[in-house]
Design goal:
alpha/beta, 10 strands, three-stranded mixed β-sheet, Trypsin Inhibitor V, Chain A
């Protein structure tokens, strides 16, 4: 089995609070997406030009979720080309920030992202890798078992072969 990257224990405690029903229901939250902590203020990191895997981890450490859209752009493939909230914007922990990730200048070779929510993380990772995607799993210790509770890009989205799919799964 492939080792998963772990979110720091402080973030795990904040996640536990959000899954206990303490998160807010604002329009920025994605239904079914794990929250990383209710209510307290945090700031959006600067992700422009950063590799999407590093950006996703930076946002998780700040208590924020990411929603990934792959777009053609002049940025190198796999780099964040734009983010919905500029760096330094004050947000609430648990908010979701949309990141536009470059596919390079061509849209050729895009694949449909399969739905792996509800599957055990190792099976979901294997299914995504078999199609041709890279996978980053973020542990959500407040969730029992190892099932995937949220993925980004979401099922049916399009991304190039080799693009990163972020899975949030029980820890």
């Amino acid at each position: 089995m492939r080792p998963r990257r772990l979110v720091p224990s402080v973030l795990a405690a904040v996640l536990a609070l959000s899954f206990a029903g303490c998160g807010d229901d604002d329009d920025e939250a994605l239904p079914g997406a794990p929250t990383t902590g209710p209510g307290s203020a945090t700031t959006a990191p600067d992700a422009i030009g950063t590799d999407i895997a590093d950006a996703a981890e930076d946002f998780a450490e700040a208590g924020l979720r990411v929603s990934i859209d792959y777009i053609p752009s002049n940025e190198r493939a796999g780099a964040v080309a734009a983010q919905a909230w500029p760096a330094g914007t004050e947000l609430q922990r648990g908010d979701t920030v949309e990141l536009d990730v470059s596919t390079g200048t061509s849209t050729a070779g895009e694949l449909r992202v399969p739905d792996v929510t509800g599957q055990p993380e190792p099976d979901a990772t294997e299914a995504l890798e078999k199609v041709g995607f890279e996978v980053l799993s973020i542990d959500v210790p407040a969730v029992e078992g190892d099932d995937v509770i949220f993925q980004s890009p979401t099922a049916g989205g399009r991304a190039r072969r080799g693009a990163l799919v972020v899975l949030y799964a029980g820890g």
